[in-house]
Amino acid sequence: MADNLLELDTPVIAILRAPTAARFAEVTAVLQESGITAVEFTLTSEGALDALRDCADFAYPIGVGTVRTAEDANRAVDAGAAYLITPVVSDEVIHEGYRLSIPVISGAFTPTEIHRAWVAGSTMIKVFPASLGGPDYLRALRAPLPDIPLVPTGGVTHDAAKAYLDAGATALGIGSPLIGDACTGGDLNALRDRALALREELK
Ligand SMILES: O=C[C@H](O)COP(=O)(O)O
């Protein structure tokens, strides 16, 4: 997955977080058709794993996010998760990902947390919440940690997306600024327009 993710035309992981996952399959179809092929279903969304099972025949693999325990990791992988994303450095999730041969993108914020999550075996590091430091913080992290693939996530807006990539981000995790209200009944054509605009911006 890591290699596929790095080779994506659009270096974005779209994050779906909503009270329920009832619309996740439809939203994922629109995103993937629009070139945003990496999509994360978050466990805080009721029914996320059932929705993932409904997407088993989708063209691109889907990840599961907000994974905090080994039990979460196993449930996610059983449902078809191609990769796992955590909001924190969780040794048990990293170890479970290694055991199951599933990439883990660990959440971390400080240089010490980022280094620790990387050495423990994470595939990439989600710098969260990225907007606290912005692109300048990411650039500062990259200087002493140039070998660690960083995925800023949390408050990454369309306007700032290019600046994070210019600062050295490998990919971006984007939830609400891209998804808007699409998971709660919002207009899917508007979602398509946002996804295509982001893809164009990041070419
Ligand atoms: O886990 C990550 C966040 O839910 C995404 O944050 P965002 O909605 O500000 O992009």
UniProtKB/TrEMBL annotation:
Gene3D superfamilies: Aldolase class I
InterPro entries with a match to the protein in the record: Aldlse_KDPG_KHG, Aldolase_TIM
Pathway, per record: Carbohydrate acid metabolism
Keywords: Carbohydrate metabolism, Lyase
UniProt KW Lyase keyword: yes
Keyword Translocase: no
Record GO terms (molecular function): lyase activity
CDD domains associated with the record: KDPG_aldolase (cd00452)
Domain of life: Bacteria
Subunit comment: Homotrimer.
Family statement: Belongs to the KHG/KDPG aldolase family.
Protein name from the UniProt record: 2-dehydro-3-deoxyphosphogluconate aldolase/(4S)-4-hydroxy-2-oxoglutarate aldolase
The species this protein was found in: Nocardia tenerifensis
